[in-house]
Each structure stands twice: as structure tokens, then as C-alpha cells.
Amino acid sequence: MPSTMNRRDITPSAQRRTHRLGATLLAGAAALALTACGGAPAQSPTSALSTAPTTSSTPSVATPTPSATPTMTKPGLTGSQVFAVKIDHTRPSHPRVGTSSADVVYVEPVEAGLTRLLAVFSSTLPEKVGPVRSTRESDVDLLANYGTKVAFAFSGASDYTMARINKGTQVNLSFDADRTGYTREAGRPKPYDVIGTTSVLLQRAGGSVPPGDVGFYYGTAPTGGASGTAVRTSWTSSTISFSYASSAGKYLITSDGRQEVDVLTGGKPVEAANVIVQYVVTKPSGNRDINGVVTPLVEVTGTGKAILLREGKSWQGTWTRPDAASPTAFKTADGQDMQLAKGSTWVLLVPQGQGVTVS
Predict the structure, then answer these.
(1) Which of 183, 205, 227 is the last residue before a domain boundary?
(2) 225: closest CA among 358, 107, 132?
(3) Boundaries of each DUF3048 domain copy (predicted)?
């Protein structure tokens, strides 16, 4: 059943960097996205979206007392090292490479209402990843507590952004600085053809570090909850939705009207065990692309509303992160830890006030 949040119609502008379309319109959109280090804008969705929890009351949820203390583990990334990659999230980059192996995937807003993916790998390291695209300054804080020397692959950035990226503790593996570990894949249009080879990039970085504590607990689901079989949200030029497949116990992902699949699995659907909607403050950064379009700066420290979906149910609550060195604490409305199911977690960084539909 639909979320009890108030609903309003949001129709992203059909205008016309870019986890993340009639012929003349597509060509024009692709050209704009190339100059903005992004990809082609997504088709404008027309379905109704509910307003974000920041503008509506929190629904009443039954909260029976658990019979025993829930079991939990943290941080849940079980590999000996962490590898992070910035991946394009627009139609020209479909199908993507290696995303089914990611422990965590952040969907970040970038220029022109588009989105990009920051994929974090540890439990399983895929052979290849991509298409690799440029970084944004918010990535520094997102990666800060995965470890102080996280190997981070990306294709480059503006001088303004690189000055801020270089202040982070991650090990930068930029395609623009050194093409060791990268190839251009035939059959993909530029700049959506840059594919990274994980083992070579990790060797170039001198290895990476074991995963740190980012605040994710893994264990039994919180008590209570509402229906959570689907979630959908749209930025101006990008749409993503998740649909629960009960047979697999996972959520299937659709980006801009196309199902997410992974080249490395022979085109099988990418699955998420958990979906987190994290409402964040966004503001203009000092960066502009060559068309003068402003890069949004995503603030991932502070506090805000959050929604967790796992196993076909949903819980509303909050997230809190005092500073970049601290883990992010996700809590339900009644104070329970938003514990995650084992498997991949997709985190949607949604600007406060943006509509989200949960059903």
C-alpha cells in the first residue's frame, strides 16, 4: 500500500559528473551532458510522487517490544581491502560493469539534474568496473570513514574539484593523471568507454585498507514497519526505482526506464538487499562546468530524515553524522537501529524536499 506521506505531482522539466532518450532531442541532450562531465538526461517521468518526509508528518508505526535483543554485526564489509569507483549513471553508459559486486552504491546528484554512482567494493572485487567517470567534492566525506587510504578510481575532475579531492585521505587513481589500469572499450561512445581493471588499479595504489566503520549494522530487521515493496524518486533529469522480488528476497533496480544489469554476470539484473533514502542538504558548490552549470554540493554530515527498505518492508527515521570522521547512525522513528540485511546496499542521496514514493 502507498506510504502515508502527503502526495503531490512532480513532473521534472523536459529540458534539454552525465549511479546514477526522438533522435534530435537525444543528440542535443548527449552533447550537453558531455560538456558537463555527465551523460544524456533521462526521460521525464510523469508519475505522481509523494513529498519528502521533511514536509510531512511521520506515519504512525506499530512498535511491538522484541522478545530478545536483536543480533547485529558492524560494519559488514568483509573483505581485506576497500576499492571505490565513480561510475556513470546515464543511459549512454548502460549496461554498467561490476555493479552487482558492490557492497554499497551511493546515488549522487550532479550537474543538470543528473546523477552519478559511487560504488564501494570489499567483500567481492570484480575483475572490471565502469564506465568510470569524474569525481565530485562530496566523495571525500563519503569515503572518509571507509579508511584513511581507500583506493579510489575516477576519470578526472575540474581544477576546482581536484583541489578539494586532494585534501581527502583516499588514494586518488585518476584516469586523467595516469591511464595505468584503464582501457577504452570498443563499441562504447566517449566518454562512456573508460573501464577500470581492479587488480591493476589496486596494484597502482599500493593496495588499500580494510573497511572501516561507516555506521551500517547488519542483523535482524527492526520491529514494526510498513509496506516497502517499491520506492521511486526523480531528480530533474534522472529517475531511479526499486521493486521487491520476493522470490529472490532482493530489490531489482530500474534507472531511467532501463533495468540495471551487469556485463560481468552476463547481463543478469543487479539486486539490492537494502535501499536507504537519505535526505540531504544540497547547495551550490564553487564549481561550474564549461556551460556555467553549477555543481551541487551534497552535505553528508549533520542530520536528516531517512527511510530503510529491506525484505519488502519500510521504516522511516533519521540519520546522524557529527563529522566526516564519524560513522553515520541510521535510526527508526522509535530509536531502533536501522539494521540491514546481508547483501548490497544502495543509498539514494535525495535533496530535502524532493519527492519519493514508497509503496
Answers:
(1) 205
(2) 358
(3) 76-204, 236-347
